[in-house]
Write a structure and sequence with these properties.
By secondary structure, the chain is α/β, with parallel strands linked by helices. Helix content is 38%, strand content 25%. The protein contains ten helices and 13 strands. It has helices at 4-15, 49-57, 79-90, 100-104, 110-117, 144-157, 186-194, 207-216, 225-228, 230-244; strands spanning 2-3, 29-32, 37-38, 41-46, 62-67, 94-97, 124-129, 132-143, 163-164, 172-179, 199-202, 219-222, 248-250. The longest helix is centred in the last third of the chain and has 15 residues, at 230-244. The chain starts with a strand and ends in a 7-residue tail after the last strand. Bound molecules: zinc ion. Zinc ion (ZN) is lined by residues 67, 181, 225, 229.
């Protein structure tokens, strides 16, 4: 058993919760408290009624998530919002959420871990958001079709599938950028072009990003929003196991995206 406040404060420091900027709905840090101690940790990408039920079944009383409870802004505590809160409070489950701080983290972050999982070694930042680089970039020499196959295998192992823009024959990935989740946008495409990148690996992005990439001769690999953000929460749970001796469980809950 470990004190909940001690874990929250440890994670706040480790992840830079107070200093990394984010969208208002992220509300990084402790989102729901419990009665004070933790005996098992569960981790999942998103919070939902099903995820909370799985955490309760696993006998966890701290749930670590990447996308927390408040994305929609202030909402009445009715319907599924009520169901989630009732389950959490009834079963004494605390919630700690970390969005961009977890994307950007140097060792536990979604971006650095996905790059390494795909056989890429980052050497710089990418996808600037206000004062921080959320993503990573680096150099390689790999057939872009092979990189796509690695991304697709990873996505399929995590309940999804990868898509890509048109990969020209013999196209090689020599300068890449990576931004998990909704990583393809007008901003990241402009940044990629300014940096001379030839390949972008993201979770997802709007259709216009594919049109712009094909036009500019840039390859984008869309490996799925959910799949690309499974690594960070797993790493945080493993870190809590190593640091505090708390057992942990990953709750897979693919969204189809
Ligand atoms: Zn996300």
């Amino acid at each position: 058993m470990t004190d909940l406040a001690r874990i929250a404060s440890h994670l706040d420091t480790l992840l830079g919760t107070a200093t990394i900027p984010d969208y208002p709905g992220a509300l990084n840090g402790m989102q729901v408290s419990n009665s004070g101690t933790v005996h098992r940790v569960a981790a999942s990408v998103d919070i939902s009624k099903n995820v909370i039920e799985d955490a309760v079944r696993a006998n966890a009383n701290l749930l670590i998530v990447h996308h927390g409870m408040f994305w929609g802004g202030a909402q009445p505590i009715t319907g599924t919002t009520y169901d989630r809160l009732r389950l959490l409070i009834t079963h004494d489950v605390a919630v700690y959420s970390s969005h961009l701080p977890l994307d950007a983290h140097q060792t536990l972050g979604n971006n650095v871990l996905l790059a390494r999982t795909l056989g890429l070694e980052p050497n710089a930042g990418f996808a600037r958001f206000k004062t921080v680089d959320i993503g990573v970039r680096g150099e390689s020499d790999v057939a872009s079709e092979d990189l796509f196959a690695r991304a697709d295998a990873f996505a399929r192992a995590n309940g999804g599938a990868a898509r890509s823009t048109i990969i020209p024959a013999a196209h090689r990935t020599r300068r890449w950028g990576l931004c998990t989740g909704a990583g393809a946008s007008t901003e990241t495409l402009l940044e990629a072009q300014a940096l001379g990148l030839d390949t972008l690996i993201v979770g997802e992005g709007p259709h216009h990003t594919a049109v712009a990439a094909n036009e500019a001769g840039l390859v984008i690999i869309y490996a799925g929003h959910y799949a690309t953000e499974t690594l960070g929460v797993r790493a945080v749970a493993d870190h809590l196991t190593e640091t505090f001796g708390l057992p942990s469980t990953f709750i897979a809950a693919p969204t189809g995206l």
